[in-house]
Design a protein that fits this description.
The chain is mainly α. It is 62% helix and 4% strand.
């Protein structure tokens, strides 16, 4: 009887040890997977730091290029010429304008002739020159019948492909299904690229099923209520105010 009890006890002990070993194995696998994910993110960040850092507007312009071709809470200079110019207008204007009004004023889409001076001039050309200085584009002269035109063909395809990959992954492999958990800069890029009709350029190389899934998830973002999202804890109210102006 005693030997039977000892065998039963040994069996229970082995099963317990096996369960503990299995649990420990699963925990180690989870830790290794998390560590690998962190390493991948760190490598991406390191790659970005070694390569040219682009502004959001430069990224939107770059997505649109073919491979062959409010309130101002802080007036501190950002280092971006166009953004600093916009902030200067916002700071000096009293009473403050709404986000919707500023988008119309800065883009020149206003019928008020007294406010035309707010328009940011030659935005595309200035962005292109910034990308030339950063080694992403180059400058060429092309002859069109009676006149020469300055063009800015892509010269550094690596930068653009990294940008395209980032956009694709944000709605595919790295999709988090909760906009409040998405990287704010990537979320802004998706909305701005869509509003500028260049987002589909990033999805064009995808397989059909990947393309359909990417567009479905973009539509989920576009169908969000900006007022609801802005009211969530930790939300960026300015981001959603701009989204509301673009998607109204």
């Amino acid at each position: 009887m005693s030997s039977v009890s000892q065998r039963s006890s040994g069996l229970v002990q082995r099963r317990t040890e096996a369960s503990r070993s299995a649990a420990a194995g699963r925990e180690r696998a989870a830790d290794e997977e998390e560590a690998e994910s962190r390493r991948a993110e760190e490598e991406d960040a390191e790659g970005d730091s070694k390569e040219t850092r682009l502004t959001l507007m430069e990224e939107v312009l770059l997505l649109g290029l073919k491979d062959r071709e409010v309130m101002c809470k802080s007036d501190a200079p950002t280092g971006d010429m166009l953004l600093d110019e916009a902030l200067k207008h916002i700071k000096e204007t009293q009473p403050p304008e709404t986000v919707q009004s500023w988008i119309e004023l800065l883009s020149g889409e206003t019928w008020n002739p007294l406010k035309l001076h707010y328009q940011l001039r030659n935005v595309r050309e200035r962005l292109a020159k910034n990308l030339v200085e950063k080694g992403v584009l180059t400058t060429e002269k092309q002859n069109f019948l009676l006149f020469d035109m300055t063009t800015h063909p892509l010269t550094n395809n690596t930068v653009k492909q990294r940008l395209v990959k980032k956009v694709q992954e944000s709605v595919l492999d790295k999709w988090v299904n909760e906009p409040q958990r998405m990287d704010k800069r990537v979320l802004s890029l998706l909305f701005l690229a869509h509003s500028s009709d260049v987002l589909e350029n990033a999805f064009a190389p995808l397989l059909d099923d990947q393309y359909d899934l990417a567009m479905k998830r973009v539509r989920l973002l576009l169908d969000l209520d900006p007022e609801v999202e802005a009211s969530r804890t930790g939300a960026n109210e300015l981001l959603w105010a701009v989204v509301a102006a673009f998607t109204k």
